[in-house]
Predict the structure.
Amino acid sequence: MDATVWLPVLVLGLPFASFVLLAVVAPLRRAGRAAGAVSIAAIAAAFLGAVLVWSVGFTREATWTWIPADDGPTATVGVLVDPLANAMLVLVTLVSLLVQIYSLAYLHDERPPSLGRYYTFQSLFAFSMLGLVLSPSFIQMFVFWELVGLCSYLLIGYWYARPTAARAAVKAFWITKLGDLGFVIGIVMLWAATDTFEFRVLFALAQEHALAIEGLGTIMFLIYLGAVGKSAQFPLHVWLPDAMEGPTPVSALIHAATMVTAGVFMVTRAQPLFALVPDVLALIGWVGAFTALLAATMACVESDIKRVLAYSTVSQLGYMMAAAGAGAPDAGFLHLLTHGLFKALLFLGAGAVIHAVGTNDIFRMGGLFRAMPQTGVVFIVGTLALAGFPPLAGFFSKEAILAGVWEADMTGPFLMLALTVLLTAFYMFRVVFLTFFGRAPAAGHPHDPSWTMRAPLWVLAALTVLVGLRLALGDVGAHHGPGWLAPLSVAAALGGIALAWATYQRGVVDPGGLAATFPFSVVDLLARRRYGLDTLYAGLYRGFLLGFSRLIGWIDRYLVDGVLNFLSAWTLRGGDLLRHIQSGHAQDYVYGVAFGVLLLFVWSQWWPR
Amino acid sequence: MSLTAYLTLAALVFAIGLFGVLTRRNAIGILLGIELMFNAVNINLVAFARFHGDLLGLVFTLFTIAITVAEVAVGLAIVIVIFRVRRTVEADRLDLLRG
Amino acid sequence: MTLETAGFWVVAVVLLASSLAVVLTPNLFHAVLYLAAALVATGVVFLLLDSPFLFAVQLLLYAVGVMAIVVFAIMLTERLVGERITQTSRHLVNGGVVAAGVFIGIAGFLIRVPRSLPRAPLVGDATPALGRALVGPFALTLELLGVLLVVALLGALYFARADE
């Protein structure tokens, strides 16, 4: 096995080894910080490996038989390394490493066994996400897809004693499971039609136009459903805001940079297949743009800082999907990478704020810039990047997406996305102004966090700036589009910032009055009620699913068990009745014999007829 | 008389003996019924031996008579012992085999 | 009507009547006496079937021996001598039905026997032939029978021993 094979396998294997070690060796896990050290060491080594793989930049696929069959294996496991996967490798390992270091300080109040559990799950997650990224086939991707979902459940519900957290974990699991259902059905249908799971084979078939199978559109739509669930597209986006019940580092890692981007990654990876079904692509584009706008409106009325960021993530995921739908997957992927950086930065910064102030409510914060200058600086850097301010990274990737959507002649999505730019700037700076500026609340002595938490923040901020500069200097996959696009997006961003400044900093515009005027009042009303989706899902769950469960339960208890109970009761009754044959009187037994003889007579005389 | 007549006679005695076994309360009464049944069997055997000219039936009858005597002896000994222990020979009272 | 036929009918009537009496009479002692009559009648049936030896055996072993045993047993199993030895029967109808059923079953076979099966011609006295058979082909059986009788004797002795 040459280096091009074992190096990616090593990157994949190190977090797995850490997970197994922590899972099996209970004393190590229960030691808390020691577990953290093991996990961090593993992911740091994996990060180095990933950087090495990325810098060399080779393309290689290596597979081993998993499910053997007569003519070629039914399924294989292996690694597929190419530029797409390499970039994800670096992103995943980098953000994992930073988050795990950050968690040491953020979760230092936790009891050691719980902390050990946390790091075990972190290692498992790193392994699962890397496995997903390196998958050479749909089926391996699906296995890791589910594993990632499991880790999300475990980590959202990390504080499982809290009922809201437990509920949120289950909700995330259920909603993504809906999407996964479509995903697996699509994969199997594709396999039934083409007899393979492997990307390489499928893409080759697509190239040769040999993939003109019946219902390819349906199949690809079902596969897309998996991305809808995992990447929180409308209408399966409702789990992501609730997933903020988990610790903030977890939100930074899996609900900003890595797990939720798995859907985008999958769509990008399967682009040759999606390109064959333009209708599905158009749907992806529209849904993505709509999701972006919808989530942005909901972020404008949120008061929990993490939920604002969660809706922001949903919105940005919509951007990425819209790009993929417009046939510009490179733009979407670029945004995935840049967004991973600055969204993680924002989440970790928000975590520092929450850690210092003790509340998530932005209306109870204020004037924190004075108390936590470093946090404030990095947070503002991240916000500017998210709002799409040049020359930070977010500007280039957002512009590339807008350009791609415009050039695909998708006007509706383009307008939605452009409006979202304004809204993004608005709600993010709303948070900034309310949190870091203005009057400080009376209680508490907030201060900048320890360097274990600060270092990852500075690293991410630096990378955001550097990547932005790199994109500004060279043409690295960032598409520029028509000339008026850049000024338009910058103007929209500035407009949003100005509006936020006017409303929240200067108090010139009254937010309540603004929200009351039509058409904002309608949007405000709907946004505050999350567009009724949560209620709808809850109603469906309680009404349909639980009702169905009750029915099944009744059938199980009364019909299935009933039959068995009936049989057993009658066995006992029958035994009771038959007991009287054993009367103990010998004469009764003679009756029996005589009766038997009679029967024999009857049988012998009538039977041979 | 034909063979059938003898066989019918034996069958009747057998049925009467069976009736006695089934209905008598006293254990010795039951044994009397069993005696009748044995008798019927013997009549059958001898009739067949005569009508087929076969000696085997007679030999068989001899043996069954001897065995019956032994059986009656032992059976009545058991009845006496039961009487000694339980002070009764009513078949209805002897239900230790009860399930 | 030949002598043999008339004899058969007479014996048949006696046998059946005494059998019925055995099973129906309430007094046990009377039942034993009726059984003795039935046994003698059976012996006469043997005589009608040209086996005088068996007639003798029947009378000796059954009518005398077994009856003696039974009488002794009855005497030993009643509380007081002189008390009327009575007993009633139970479930007469059930027993009657089953017994009748068995008879009908057997009769079903008897109907199929061809009507006039002639008697085999008499080839001299069967008794010497019987004796030769007993010490010839059936010698082993005879010896086993002896063993059986010894065993039965021992068993009866054991049962009848005094309590310790």
User: Anything to note?
Assistant: Residues 3-111+122-160 of chain C form a domain with the Four Helix Bundle (Hemerythrin (Met), subunit A) fold (CATH 1.20.120.1200).
